[in-house]
Amino acid sequence: MNGGFLQTPINYLKGVGPNRADLLKKELGIHTFQDLLNLFPNRYLDRTKYYKITELQRNSAEVQIVGKVIHLKTVEQKRGKRLVATFTDGTSKMELVWFRGHKWIRENVKINVPYVVFGKTNWYNGTFSMPHPEMELVSKHKEGVRSAMQPIYPSTEKLSKSGITNKVIIGLLQQLFTELKGNFSETLSKTILDSLKLVSKSTALLNIHFPQSPELLARSQYRLKFEELFYIQLQLLRKNLQHKSKIKGYPFEEIGENFNTFYNHHLPFELTNAQKRVIKEIRNDLGSNAQMNRLLQGDVGSGKTIVALMSMLIAIDNGFQACLMAPTEILSVQHYNGLLELCNKLNTSIEILTGSTKTSKRREIHKKLENGEINILIGTHALLEDKVKFQNLGLAIIDEQHRFGVAQRSKLWHKNEYPPHVLVMTATPIPRTLAMSVYGDLDISVIDELPPGRKGIKTVHRFDSNRLKVFRFLKDEISKGRQVYIVYPLIQESEALDYKDLMDGYESIVREFPQPNYQISIVHGQMKPADKDFEMNRFVRGETQIMVATTVIEVGVNVPNASVMVIESAERFGLSQLHQLRGRVGRGAEQSYCILMTSHKLSSDAKTRLQTMTQTNDGFEISEVDLKLRGPGDIMGTQQSGVLNLRIADIVKDSAILKIARSYAMQTLKTDPALASEENKPIKHTYSQLVKFKNIWNYIS
Ligand code: ADP
Ligand code: MG
């Protein structure tokens, strides 16, 4: 059976009239036979298991119970009537409830005769109830053949209200399998099937809907997950390849004077192996004549800046300019000062351009940029203004890209005739598996090693009731010359309240740490940018010992002398935010601390977050936990949640399959980029069908 036939509109299936067709389309996105086939069960129900009422859980799924109706009554309620049966199985009692079809039930349900009832249970007012149960007399039930695994399909309230129950869906699928005679064309190549010992497409589809055995179900699930991930990876990798062959970049073939002088004489420390590896990867990219499009992931403090600098030196050695864009003025200034210091023995001209650059200076920079006198320009969004014209921008580096939209990224590309190479750096640890699927069209480098000699940050969890002890600890640290951050949450929805918390907190800190012994900075979102910078800079220069702030300090700020991070109401922060905040300390030689303050009331997720923080400093490990807690959609933000529109695979749980799928997709494209071989015919066909018929693939473009 073939693709063409599977594209038959669903209303041509026996049992689907115009109404049902309409509902299936609206509620489940099922337009064609193919769509119905791809409606995979969420789970399977063991219909060989019978529950006792006393065994029921408050949030249990569908269950079947054997018992008798001992009483039937109509209950009047505000909106219509309810028919309620008292049902007992000898262990306890529960209610069966109907909102419609009372007459039929009253006439047909037998009192005191054993039934098997099946359905979802609710817990209400101290009793379990089962609305609209499926009921079957035990005498009849025994005759039927029980399949051990009954598929449970995704549904919506509207569907079940309109009578399209799980049973109906099963019926439709049975009908479809009968019409198709269970024969489906293979969608993977023989090589892949053989080497991974995958079951055929026909076996997989039959068993995913009607499992013949748990083993076959497992193998079918594996095959379908693999297939789904394989085609996503194939698409991403193809895009990447096409990009490389189409979009040319300036080849930087020279490794010249600046790079060599710096590398041989002015490196302030020995590079870590991870840094060396990443620089090599970047050098390779820059040396080819395809445009580089690389994402550099590295935990806070892993040393991305030096990698950025050395990449920029390569550009300069090849006669090009480079720019480094940061999300805030403070960060830009820090990069600027840092790079000036690193380059002070080199012959490079570095400038900074931000919102607060004076007009005269701005004009000078514009001019020097156009005539090529500036080698490296550092700055904020100000770099994206139309007046900023490079003579020949060869490399654009973007630090902390999650603050920049993709649109802005592409704006930089169009500054020049030829697009510059692009390196995006981020400390937001995105689990590799997720990065692979979301950024599959970027190349990814990872610095997965911290510079040697770092003392791990000691993280503890303290309750508000221990606050005085915490304050004493802060005083000790300050007396040793250290600085301290105290951070309050600021969540948009509760902004006014949060602001009050911050101010209350600030006042109590001012009381606890009085002038002139202590100087305190405060930074929050309602301040003018100039005031924020002023306060921030006082702290950076060491004029204040305590920085009270909302999360505005989260990105990038580098104050090596700050050794304590206190996070108030830590239970309200997400894991990645906590990790980012903690990354503000531990940047100097001293032992650093992170203190997570909370009340005693903690949800179980909050407990997991706090525990994770106290147990590990590893950003990737933390991001994996975060992903499990929140789900991928939340982590990547709404724009990218389309990527997670998977039918059967789960990006978190199936990361092992994802890796295999990716390597097979790579291998396939490597040996046969056009998918032209006889062997790859099924892949080529499936791929083009997917592109043609499935708009879910749009998310990739
Ligand atoms: P991030 O990746 O967070 O941007 P930075 O580039 O700011 O990290 O580096 C953090 C600190 O570690 C800086 O003070 C930097 O000088 C230092 N550093 C970077 N690489 C090394 C290294 N290989 N050995 C020792 N110190 C290093
Ligand atoms: Mg950095």
TrEMBL record:
Question: GO BP, one example?
Answer: DNA recombination
Its domain of life reads Bacteria
Q: Residue limits of the Helicase ATP-binding domain? A: 285-447
| Keyword Phosphoprotein among record annotations | no
Any single GO molecular-function term of the entry would be: DNA binding
What general EC class does the enzyme of this chain belong to? isomerase
Q: What is its EC number?
A: 5.6.2.4
Provide the alphabetized UniProt keywords: ATP-binding, DNA damage, DNA recombination, DNA repair, DNA-binding, Helicase, Hydrolase, Isomerase, Nucleotide-binding
Domain (Helicase C-terminal) spans 466-633
The region annotated as signal peptide is none
For this protein, the record's InterPro entries field holds:
ATP-dep_DNA_helicase_RecG (IPR004609), DEAD/DEAH_box_helicase_dom (IPR011545), Helicase_ATP-bd (IPR014001), Helicase_C-like (IPR001650), NA-bd_OB-fold (IPR012340), P-loop_NTPase (IPR027417), RecG/Mfd (IPR047112), RecG_dom3_C (IPR045562)
Asked whether the UniProt record includes GTP-binding among its keywords, one would answer no
* Catalysed reactions, semicolon-separated: Couples ATP hydrolysis with the unwinding of duplex DNA by translocating in the 3'-5' direction; ATP + H2O = ADP + phosphate + H(+)
Give a single Pfam family match.
Helicase_C
**Physiological role:** Plays a critical role in recombination and DNA repair. Helps process Holliday junction intermediates to mature products by catalyzing branch migration. Has replication fork regression activity, unwinds stalled or blocked replication forks to make a HJ that can be resolved. Has a DNA unwinding activity characteristic of a DNA helicase with 3'-5' polarity.
Q: What is stated as this protein's family in its record?
A: Belongs to the helicase family. RecG subfamily.
Task: Report the protein name in the record.
Answer: ATP-dependent DNA helicase RecG
Recall the taxonomic lineage recorded for the source organism. Answer: Bacteria, Pseudomonadati, Bacteroidota, Flavobacteriia, Flavobacteriales
